[in-house]
Automatic annotation (TrEMBL):
InterPro entries: Sig_transdc_resp-reg_C-effctor, TrmB-like, Tscrpt_reg_LuxR_C, WH-like_DNA-bd_sf. This is Helix-turn-helix transcriptional regulator. One of its GO terms (biological process) is regulation of DNA-templated transcription. One of its GO terms (molecular function) is DNA binding. Residues 273-330 form the HTH luxR-type domain.
Length: 358
């Protein structure tokens, strides 16, 4: 049997048509479905729906006296304040009851924090939590987001994120920013091409967040208040490791800060954008290391199709007939460029004859 407390609390939408019907009831003193049909040229179903919404919102009530001649039922208008007291007040009371239950549950569970901490110390896992199921991970992130006080650091490798995930993230992030929480987010350059990501970044930066990009990222990470870090689980694709050990969290924050300092502010990527060159240089470097297309695409956060397009263009530019030859030529080019970069510049000093004073 379903728990009534699990039933979602919803209200019908009061449309412009519904407002006009309510105004008609006020003007006439009462109304019937037949009157609604005639006044607004609606069929019986549409008129019944319009009246039903007003009844659900308690803005109409049936006339107590039944119609002796069996004519259409009469409805009387109800003042909005009275309707709110009858329709909204019980819902508010139910919400207060649910909130009180949630607070009692939180208080009961918080008693076990010391028990959990003691068990962690005995097992040698103090400062680390392993979570293997996605719902618990999402609940934890939601709680950390809600309780975050000062700063959140986020690195999101892997290219563009799904639009529905971005929409969920925006609502969560906006609530944090409005509480005064600073937000720094790192993406890969390839996310600059993604229209939903562009829209998300525009909205979240307008609210006060900062977003930057790099060609490659060190991995996915969330850090809250520089006290708690959430990392991907090594084995479970849906799991996470939660790190609270201060020295390790500080180290992870330093890794993030170094990447942040060398990253570029997010702007939509154009065909001539300089970061496109960074991406192509990264493809050359990884090709020279002998990586397959799939691995390069995953490493740079791009689709396999885009990666193969870049590789084909580079093979053509290098004059290579195979990936092996392209890798060799790319490695040669990189070695030459590195030699030029470190070679000492020729001296521009003018030789002086012996004995010539400086």
């Amino acid at each position: 049997m379903a728990d009534p407390s699990d039933t979602p609390i919803t209200f019908p939408h009061l449309s412009e048509q519904g407002i006009l019907v309510y105004q008609l009831a006020l003007r006439k003193g009462n109304l019937t479905q037949q009157l609604v049909s005639q006044e607004f040229e609606l069929d019986a179903t549409q008129a019944a729906e319009a009246v039903s919404v007003l009844l659900d919102l308690h803005l109409l009530r049936p006339k107590e006296e039944p119609q002796a001649d069996g004519s259409d039922r009469v409805f009387l208008p109800v003042p909005p304040a009275v309707a709110a007291a009858g329709r909204v007040a019980p819902v508010e009371a139910e919400l207060r009851r649910r909130l009180a239950e949630a607070e009692r549950a939180r208080a009961q569970l918080s008693v076990l924090e010391e028990v959990y901490a003691a068990g962690s110390r005995q097992s040698g896992t103090s400062g680390f939590d392993e979570i293997l199921d996605l719902p618990t991970v999402l609940d934890l992130i939601e709680w950390l987001t809600t309780t975050c006080r000062t700063e959140v650091l986020t690195a999101q490798p892997g290219g563009p994120r799904a639009p529905h995930l971005l929409e969920q993230a925006f609502a969560r992030d906006l609530a944090m920013i409005r509480r005064g929480v600073r937000m720094h987010t790192l993406y890969q350059h390839t996310a600059r091409r993604h229209a939903p990501t562009q829209e998300y970044v525009e909205r979240v930066t307008a609210a006060g967040a900062e977003v930057r990009t790099l060609t490659e990222l060190f991995g996915r990470i969330l850090v809250f208040d520089r006290e708690v870090a959430v990392l991907p689980h090594r084995v479970s694709i849906d799991g996470a490791m939660v790190v609270r050990e201060p020295s390790l969290v500080a180290y992870l924050c330093e890794v993030f800060d170094r990447a942040w300092s060398s990253a570029e502010a997010y702007t939509p990527l154009r065909q001539w954008d300089y970061v496109l060159d960074d991406v192509k240089h990264a493809v050359i470097r990884l090709l020279a290391e002998g990586m397959k297309d799939e691995m390069i695409a995953r490493r740079l956060g791009m689709s396999l199709r885009t990666c193969r397009k870049h590789v084909a263009e580079l093979m053509e530019a290098l004059g290579a007939s195979s990936r092996f030859q392209a890798g060799y030529l790319a490695r040669t080019r990189l070695d030459v460029n590195a030699s030029v970069a470190v070679a000492p510049k020729p001296s521009t000093a003018v030789a002086r004859p012996e004995g010539d004073p400086a």
